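[Automated response] Your request has been received and processed.

Submitted sequence:
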Amino acid sequence: MCAIAGMIDLQVSERLINTMLKTMLRRGPDSSHWYQHQRCTLLHARLVVIDPAGGRQPMTLHWGDEHYTIVYNGELYNTAELRRELTALGHCFSGHSDTEVLLHGYAQWGQEVLAKCNGIFAFAVWEENAERLFMARDRMGVKPLFYKEHEGGLIFASEIKTILRYPSVRSELDEEGAAEILLLGPGTTPGCGVFRGIMELKPGWCGYYEHGRLHIQQYWSLRDREHRESFRETAEHVRELVLDAIRRQTVSDVPVGTFLSGGLDSSLITAVCARQMPETLRTFSVDYLDNDKYFVPNAFQPNSDGYYIRLMQDSLHTDHHWCILSPEDLEAALEESTDARDLPGMADVDFSLLVFCKQIREHVTVALSGECADEIFGGYPWYRDPKIRDADGFPWAQNTAQRCSMLSPELATKIDGMDYVRQRYLDTCRQSDILPGTSPLERRMKEMVNLNQQWFMQTLLDRKDRMSMYSGLEVRVPFCDHRIAEYLYGVPWEFKDWQGREKGLLRHAMEGWLPDEVMWRKKSPYPKTFDPKYLAMMKARLEALLSDPDAPLFSLISRQAARDIMEKDSLWPWYGQLMRKPQTIAYLLQIDYWLRSNHVDLLF
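Generated structure:
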């Protein structure tokens, strides 16, 4: 994995190049290089995973009448197949990196190479003679890519912080950006970079920049189809897809490990990897100091993870590592995790992951994680609770009215908060591809998949990418294989919810791979602390902020709203399953720090 950036038709000095590269070194700590040719400058910082000697970037290829130069962040999991196909067409390779294969693939097929790629990626290719830039992002949105059309040119980068280093780019927030932070955050509208003028290339989109204009288009989306297979055939198909996705993602020239929560998804990945890899697998879990003392079961998190993690460890004989966090560890990571994400995030869910990934990086460079199974297989409570599922609005954030009531008087007059959120929800529902004649239940479940993939899943993928790459740790997500998503979209809900169990199809498909206690364990989300000390610490910090007359947070929300959050328990979590009172307070603290540290100018 790496960091990429580039500028077209803009003034660029070597000093600026070095300034921008410094923002990229956490993602790519092993080497950094740049390329310049007349109108184009490309930057690359590398984390070496495949072909240390032959994968240097920017990489240039002379093919036909064109000179192609690529900067690429990602991994292709079908590199060998593509290399064989290209070799048969006359291409020769000097190394075994996926970068070289992707570059030759683009030279051979142009934009159509995207249909052939199985992987996670964000990349850009400059064509010298044509004087045009091609950009693309993977189908599922695992790897980030932001851009800004600026002063007659274009800037793009893996992270917003790199774009903000261009001298004339200003950190600005208008009312729409404020609405994203307050009404939708930590999720964001697909394609929105929150800062005024900064956009994110959406998952499954690509585009060309030429003659001073950017033309972007969608090259992939979920398409509905008639499902003709029986449940047994469907389970066999799912088993093949899941096993193939996991096995492909163990390929690496550096040490590999897995996240292990004791839940279904990470345990399946760990079990497959433990059998696939010749050496003892290294596994990693996070927990909290005195968690057994303070843990409180609830509908979202019925039991803690420790017992199930030890069961998996004993079953597979892995080299297991624990990361035990205190409330002080979480508080200390508040600012750093905000810097890593460039935006306010999922509060201590981010804080803990940031520290966890730092510790994992001491042992391995690549780790596999279980994100995206819940979105694709229908594992979240809101898929299975008819009351929440059928409610109007995003199911993981049923608190729009509360959020609207928090707006500062200035913002409240400029934003129709209820309409802002509802239109984005309706737009996403309308974009769902659904065959004619589909039953009301199946129609709603396909809308739910689309809502989750475009919104909630993106928040989790952003979180995992930024918190891990901040320490130069590459995290792969096998359940995000687009082949699994494409196939499952057409599978009826009755199969996914087989015998009334969340992810019932996945459990039946993978029978025999896990101890029964883990295979049939009720879903439990990423762990959070229940220590009352953490809530007290967050309250104390917000109290201090309330006494600061210049705190920028209160240009966005009213001071009374902040007091209410400290004193009252909300009916709904702020976001998802985990962001209750302590996390909501921490989110407000993140907003204030983000406004200060980025010197954000408010345009309302």
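Summary generated for your ticket: The first strand starts at residue 2 and ends at 8. The mean pLDDT is 95.
If you did not submit this request, please reply to this message.
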